[in-house]
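HUMAN: Ready with one sample?

ASSISTANT:
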Amino acid sequence: MRRILLAIDLSAPSWEATRLAIHMAPKLDVAVTVLSIVVPGTPLREAKDQRGREYEAVRELVDDVVKELVAAGVKAKGEVRSCKRGEVAREILGATSRLGADLIFMGSRARGELTGLLLGSVSQEVAMGAGCPVVIVPTGALTKLTPRRIVLVIDGEGDPAQPVGVTVELAHALKAAVEVVCVGRTLGDAFEPTESASAANPDEEAVTRVTATLKKARVEVRSRMIDNRRGFAPEIAREVMATGADMVVIGARAIGWVGGDIAAGAAEAVIHRTHRPVVVAPSRRRS
């Protein structure tokens, strides 16, 4: 991991994301680019002065965050860009690609599954489109500046290389323990029986493999399977609260109450219930 993109605005969730990024960046030994997007509130010419003031306020915010990062010993720079309403996520994704960012930090208002899926959110759009893990930090996050326990959520359908990779880096940098969990088959998923009735459960096999990988990487780890009695997000939230986890890495591919590749939507739901930072690092389908 070499570069973090910290996407911020003037909202409360951005302050939470900024606080966590400033604390974690030195431990991860990475450079940080602080990005803020200005969206003009009105196209009227007479609003030009107002737009200028908005830009200056955002520029000042970005400069202040960069100064804090530099004071913490982090190589940092800032960017302020503008775009049309509805194109903020695309702008952030473009910057991620252009900068070669390995991890994105951003805030979320944590509105819950239904609202988030119907209305969408910038953090959800970014998490769905990014090729790298995205750390989503909610308003009023119950965030410890140095997370000590991470819950890693996986399933047996995808290649877990990305979620495992970011979990190892976070665990080493933060000296955190990890709990690998897998929630039973999610609501809406179709079950296709295998030819062999005695075939091993792919979810259990995945948990065993990932646990072994983490142990080999010298990470303190334990694991467990969770029965899906309430749905994905409620079960994960229950586990997080029971174990006192400070951060969640969602690496399952087909999760949520609709099924399919909606890790970002599930992340919003977990955030809504736990008020913990969630890292969305969806595993890719095995070819």
